[in-house]
Amino acid sequence: MEDRRQMRRFTLRLPCLIYERNRACGNLLFEAWTANVSTGGALVATDQRLPVGMPVHVNLLIRRNRATKATDAGGCVSLNGWVVRDDDDGLGMAFSEEYRIMRTSDLFGRCQAVAHWLKQMENEGKAFLSIVR
């Protein structure tokens, strides 16, 4: 098979979170590890299957060597992309040119804030869907 990659790939094993992107708040589909990464995409080593063309959101987690707390573990590169290949090696993903780099603690804080907000809604007896309508 001819290699059509335009960007150099680096063997880099990073933990990543794969989300469904076609929703307002994407559902976490699974956790995995990258096998290799480039500026244009990544190969995610997983036995999970997703359809080619499916839009995804990916958080690549970059760990600091001396972090003592999980929330101070380093950074996160947040990317949108889509599945371009699904085979025995894993999922090939292409990334859009837009990305965001943030601290892991910021990502954790956002998740906590959303969870807190949803819990308040639940405690007040308000259904989320009734507010959206």
Topology:
Blueprint: E1 10-11, E2 15-20, E3 28-37, E4 41-45, E5 55-63, E6 74-87, E7 90-103, H1 104-123, H2 128-132
Can you describe this structure?
The protein has 133 residues and is α+β, with helices and mostly antiparallel strands. It has one domain (15-131). 19% of the residues lie in helices and 45% in strands. The chain has helices at residues 104-123, 128-132; strands spanning 10-11, 15-20, 28-37, 41-45, 55-63, 74-87, 90-103. The chain has a six-stranded antiparallel barrel. A hairpin with a 2-residue loop joins strand 6 and strand 7. The longest helix is centred in the C-terminal third of the chain and has 20 residues, at 104-123. The termini are far apart. The relative contact order is 0.16. Residues 128-133 have low confidence and may be disordered. Residues 3-96 form the PilZ domain. One of its GO terms (molecular function) is cyclic-di-GMP binding. InterPro entries: PilZ_domain. This is PilZ domain-containing protein.
